[in-house]
## 1
Amino acid sequence: MIAFRGGFHGRTLLGVTLTGMSQPYKQNFGPFASDVFHVPFPNAYRGVSTEDALAALEEVFATEAAPERVAAIIVEPVQGDGGFLPAPPEFMRALRDVTTRHGIVLIVDEIQAGFGRTGKMFGFQHSGIRPDLVTVAKSLAGGLPISGVVGKAEIMDAPAPGGLGGTYGGNALACAAALAVIEAFEKEDLLARGEHLAARMRDGLEKLQQKYQCIGEVRGLGFMLAIEIVADRSGKAPDAALAQRIIDESRIGGLLVIKCGVNRNVVRFLAPLVTTEAQLDEALTILDGALNRAAG
Ligand SMILES: Cc1ncc(COP(=O)(O)O)c(C=O)c1O
């Protein structure tokens, strides 16, 4: 299988093997599953273009695993834990082309980006591609534990009945919550609401970027937004300690935010799509105070 540096796919043996981040996921664990190769993910801020990432994929085909030996490529439409890096649409389309050409299954991991967080129901819709398999969880049931794999019938029907399952599979309460979430998307127009909140939040974060030199970049897609914290804007050296201070000061002020990024220097915001404008504005005010105390 091929996955991407900075990708996060969970903590089972294969999940952590596919994950392209050493700290904290691969630290003190191992050995990992064999035959998983990692390729750079596009990151304009750090100088990795779509062309660079695609060239690295071709290099893996040439040096490590011939394409006919590759079962699947797994990609997040927006790298979540890896630093809220949206995959450029042309990158997703190129992955779709390459996988179709070689008969490789394209898996899009929508566990973090799915269900409206990026402004569309699924992140892959921004590039117009059709994946072969899609993983879903998190926002699917608004916090209740449920996850799923959706995909082409020929793949989904391959296991024999009972071949896939688990103690909590099909849990009635979680399924009811997921149905209620889908209904809320329709009745409350949550996609449009997310877009509205996203624009307001991006605007607020960009104003904070003008005020604080430590915010190297404001980025994300839809309401999935983050700020990358650097020691100085020209050198762009990641400042994980400062990011942690901002997170701690935010918590003291009453705002819970978490870090991400391979260097753990990105502060990410994952507020629910039902957040009110007043709550969002309050959060931005708390963040302003936290930045002021941590970096000022
Ligand atoms: C993109 C992505 N994939 C997979 C996972 C792992 O999901 P789980 O913890 O349900 O195994 C996560 C969790 O954060 C995630 O963000």
## 2
Amino acid sequence: MSETFNPFSLEGKTILVTGASSGIGRSIAIVASKMGATVVITARNQERLEQTLSQMSEGSHKIISADVTATEDIDKISTETPALDGIVHCAGVGRRLPLKMVQEKDVEFAMATNFKAPVLLQRTLLKKKKVHPGASIVFIASRAPFAPTVGNGLYAASKGAIIAYAKVLGLELSNQLIRVNCICPAMVWTDLVQRDAEVNGVDYHELEKSYPLKRYGQPSDVANLTVYLLSDASCWMTGSCIDITGGASSL
Ligand SMILES: NC(=O)c1ccc[n+]([C@@H]2O[C@H](COP(=O)([O-])OP(=O)(O)OC[C@H]3O[C@@H](n4cnc5c(N)ncnc54)[C@H](OP(=O)(O)O)[C@@H]3O)[C@@H](O)[C@H]2O)c1
């Protein structure tokens, strides 16, 4: 009998996922393990990382609890991780604020996690030779830079910055056939959105009906696209930004 055809398999690949204690990152870790990958999961909350691990397929997976905004923790991740075939930069924060209210600490908060942390972690992994030639790097960015909404300026700017950075990174790593792509989701049901709804009193259950596919995304919707970018099926893709929006980007 012939082997099952599966160009999306992650068998034999070791993948690092940041932000894996919750939402989209958790789902990526779970789905990647089910696709055959060995997954290194990181975030600050050890207990929630263990909950993620409990939902993953069996394998030699690893937990590294770390704060990606701390230099010593970036060193810890890049020292403790084995060499990688894939990296998913998913850790992120969002906090709406009218731009006339912005203080220096708010700029630092958004940029520290959404821009500076992935940039410095990626630099350190490369310097420590933890990225195999032919690897795939994925940034979970956002539609926010292209779809302005009130109060979302700092978040949108931090995601726009990482998209610009990723395109140059892809160019610089192309001689090693390392691919770099961004995923730009519209609204996805996670704790980040629930917190936003509570703090700002927004009824997202009502708003999601305006999406052409009549719903916001689920973390697994983004995870499945991430698997494609991590797999050899996407071996001719680099420097891309892929929207995943339930049709919202066409509105
Ligand atoms: N949900 C959406 O609608 C949406 C849309 C577009 C893009 N995104 C992006 O998707 C990514 C995941 O977001 P989510 O919606 O899944 O939110 P979430 O459920 O709040 O998850 C955020 C993750 O980031 C981690 N994290 C935050 N700060 C960290 C830090 N300093 N160090 C290490 N880990 C940190 C959190 O872990 P700990 O708290 O355990 O550290 C958690 O695992 C983010 O980059 C977000 O911007 C989300």
